[in-house]
Amino acid sequence: MTESEPTEIAFFETGTEAADAETDRPRSDHGDSDRRLPPADLARRIFDMSPISTVVIDSTGAIAFANERAIETLGLSSDEIAERTYEPSEWNISYEDGSPIPVEKHPVARVFATGEPEYGFEHWLELPDGTERWLVTNSRPVANDADEVEYVVVSFADVTELKRRSERLLSDHMRRLEFRADQSAVPPSLRVEDGEWRIEVESVVSLPDGATVQYMGTSDLSASDFVTAVEEVPHYVDVRLLSTSDGYSRIEARAEEATVSEVFQSLGGHPRAVIIAHDEVRFLGELPGDVDHRLAADGVRRFHDNVELVSEDLVYSPHLLSDVVEDALTDRQLATLDAAYFSGYFDTPRTSTGGELADRFGVTRQTFNQHLRKAQRTVFEHLFERSDRAH
Predict the structure, then answer these.
(1) How many beta carbons lie within 10 A of that of residue 339, not counting itself?
(2) Whole-angstrom Cα distance, residue 364 to residue 373?
(3) How many beta carbons lie within 10 A of that of residue 309, not counting itself?
C-alpha cells in the first residue's frame, strides 16, 4: 500500500488541513478555544474499526482501501484484496439465479458512470473456500473539485442467514415422499402375516453424544407387543412405554446408531411413519419443496440397498407458528422442548421427570430447566406478542 499513501492522506483528511481549518474558525465564548483537535489518524482508525464492511475503489477500478471487517467478510488478506479490481469476474458474483453480473450492471461501474449512489444491491459472492454469501451493498461516489468521481465507497453486509431464513419461511410447499424396501428391511420381530402395521414417527431428538431419542406411536399393536418389537431392532436401546390412550401407544427409544428417520431430518424435513407389510416396508417423510428427493433416496440407500421411490407429492403447506418457533429457538432449546413434550413431561401426572430428561441430555437438572424455560418463553412471545414487539 506504499504507493497509495498520498491518496490515503487526501482521503482521510484529519491532519494539518483540519488543524488549519480549526485555527481559522471563529471562537465563541463557550470554551471552543479549549477544545482539543482530533488525532490526525482518527478517520483512518474509525474506518478500520467500523463494524460495517467497507472498501474504497479509485477511478482505475483498483481497491485502494479495505477495512478489517471487509477483509474478514471477503475471506482474503489485505494484500490479496489490494491486487484485485472491482470487476465482477474477479469476485465470482452473481444474481439470485446464479447468472453472472456483467460489468455494466455492477453498482460500482454505475456509480462511476452516473455519479449517483446505488443502494440496496443484492448478490451472491463466492468466497475463496467455495462457500457462497448473500451480500447487500451500498455504493456512494466521492467527487473531486472538478466534480468528477474520484472514488466510490462501498459498504456491504453479509445477510446470508437472513436470506436462508426468509427462503425457509416463504417456502409454501412440502414434498411428501414414500420409499419402499423389500422384506429384508423388516426385522423378524416386525414381520406381518396379513395386513400392515403403521408406526408413527412423532419426533427425533438429537443428543449431545451423537445418539438420538425417538418418539414413536401406533394403534396397530398392543403396548407390550410394541415395546417388544422395537427392543428387537438392533439400533434401539432403552425402549420404554410412555403412555397408552384410546388404543394408541407411545414409546421412547434411544438410537445409538443412525436410522432412516434421521435422513429426512438432516435434509430439513420430518420423518412421518413406517408402514410394515408382509413382504415390504415403506418409509414416509416430508422434505422442503425445494430439496431434491434424490438426496433422501441416497440417504435411505445407506440402510437398504434395494429402496425405491414409490410416490411423491408436492403439497401446499403454509408455514404456521411451529415453523417460526423452530427458527427462533436454538438447537438445544428445540431439542429440550421436543423431548419434554413427547416424553410426557407436561402431562398430568408426568410420564417423564425433569431429572430423567436431564440425564438423557447429559446435563444437570438446573441446566435442563434453563433451556426449557427459555424455549417456553420464546414460544409464548411468538404466540402472544405482536410481531413488531417480539424479540
Answers:
(1) 24
(2) 14
(3) 14
Residue 174 CB neighbours (<10 A):
20
Query: How many CA atoms are closer than 13 Å to the CA of 353, on its beta-carbon side?
Result: 6
Q: Which of 267, 159, 270 is nearest to 214 (CA)?
A: 270
- Please give the Cα distance from 249 to 263 (Å, whole number): 24
Tell whether pTM > 0.70.
Answer: no
How many residues belong to the chain? Answer: 391
- The contacts of residue 110 (CB under 8 Å, 6+ apart) are 104, 116, 118, 139
The DSSP 8-state label assigned to residue 329 in this structure reads S
Give dist(CA 215, CA 272) in Å, integer: 11
Give the model's pLDDT for residue 260: 92
pLDDT tens column, 16-35: 444 444 444 455 455 555 56
Q: Return the closest-CA partner of residue 298 out of 212, 200, 179.
A: 179
Distance CA 130, CA 115 (A): 34
